[in-house]
Design goal:
There is one protein chain. By secondary structure, the protein is of the alpha+beta class. The chain folds into 2 domains: about 170 residues, 3-Layer(aba) Sandwich (Peroxisomal Thiolase, Chain A, domain 1), CATH 3.40.47; about 150 residues, Peroxisomal Thiolase, Chain A, domain 1 (3-Layer(aba) Sandwich). It is about 30% helix and about 25% strand. The strands form 5 sheets. The protein has a 5-stranded mixed beta sheet with strand order 1-9-16-15-14, sandwiched between helices. A 5-stranded mixed beta sheet has the order 2-8-7-5-6, with helices on both faces. A two-stranded antiparallel ribbon has the order 3-4. It starts with a strand and ends with a strand.
Length: about 325
């Protein structure tokens, strides 16, 4: 997909986030695998993660984020007419997590769909929700990015177990009656030939001719994912900004997927975005895949950084290998 500028769009009317109470710090990982705090921070920027308990699952992250959204903005859910949940770690393959949201919050007649685009999932969810609203069929959509990556992390693999955490974020998108919406432009790109560099499978033992593990745990070639991200994401940023007639100076905040601080630093350097404009969540929460971007927004809101009418560039990238970017004006 080439970069596209929206002539009109939906507006963000509420936001919420949730992380579980249990903390997994770098010192805890030192007792589990051969690693140490300094090594982890130097290579990833991560100091701790939040981990779901044995009794908690993705639905618990989702419900927590939605309850926070309702509480913070006194939001109504009874007239929501579609629910989109982006996750790679649902409690069950079916029923969907979106249908669980409908049941938990007593939403009346609504559509409910899960989507799976790994770390790009939340941004894809916003893109798709915006399209559904602009179609004229739907007026109010709940979009959620949520993960319990701890459930599929191999805690004997020192290269990956230091990365992942759990959490969720949620937004309400509603039809803009005056045509002045939140979403300004979008971009997406896929490099499916690199999908074997980060995957999770318990069924197929191969992608094409490439053999895979079937442990049901995350397997990642970090070097190849890094190389792809720091090459592709700056290209996508340039194409999106050019397509919308904007420059780096027009962006108030850059909100990339919080995969690894070294990746974010390289992307900022290559794209010309000052690092102090980057909002991230990995230091406190680790890599939370589809939840990392809303969690970064939550941190910025609570710190008083993010203000109404700020222009944000959201950029999700990861498993697939997929990319999804969105320019939006913050309206809360």
């Amino acid at each position: 997909m080439k970069a596209a500028e929206f002539q009109s769009s939906a507006v963000i009317t509420a936001f919420g986030a949730y992380v579980p109470d249990q903390v997994l710090g770098n010192d805890d990982l030192e007792r589990m695998v051969e690693t140490n705090h300094e090594w982890i921070v130097q290579r990833t920027g991560i100091t701790e993660r939040r981990i779901a308990s044995d009794e908690q699952f993705c639905s618990d992250m989702i419900f927590g984020a939605v309850r926070d959204l309702v509480s913070r903005y006194d939001a109504r859910l009874d007239d929501v007419d579609f629910v989109l949940v982006a996750t790679t770690t649902p409690d069950t393959l079916f029923p969907s997590m979106a249908s669980r949201v409908q049941a938990e919050f007593g939403i009346g007649s609504c559509g409910a769909v899960d989507l799976q685009a790994a770390c790009a999932g939340f941004v894809y969810g916003l893109q798709l929700a915006n399209g559904l609203i602009l179609s004229g069929i739907y007026r109010k959509i709940l979009v959620i990015g949520a993960e319990t990556l701890s459930k599929i992390t191999d805690y004997t693999d020192r290269a990956t177990c230091i990365l992942f955490g759990d959490g969720a974020g949620a937004v309400l998108l509603e039809r803009s009656e005056d045509g002045q919406g939140s979403l300004l432009g979008a971009y997406s790109h896929t490099t499916g030939s690199g999908g074997h560099h980060v995957y999770c499978s318990h069924l197929s033992g191969s992608i094409g001719s490439v053999p895979m593990q079937t442990s049901g745990k995350i397997v990642q070639n970090g070097r190849e994912v890094y190389r792809w991200a720091v090459t592709q994401v700056p290209k996508g940023i340039a194409e999106l900004l050019d397509g919308c007639g904007l420059g780096v100076d027009d962006i108030d905040w850059f909100v990339p997927h919080s995969a690894n601080m070294r990746i974010v630093e390289s992307i900022c350097e290559k794209s010309g975005i000052p690092l102090d404009k980057a909002l991230t969540s990995m230091a406190d929460y680790g890599n939370t895949s589809a939840a990392s971007i809303p969690l970064a927004i939550d941190i910025a809101l609570k710190a008083g950084k993010l203000r109404k009418d700020d222009v944000l560039l959201l950029y999700g990238f990861g498993g697939g290998l997929t990319e999804a970017a969105l320019l939006l004006r913050w309206t809360l």
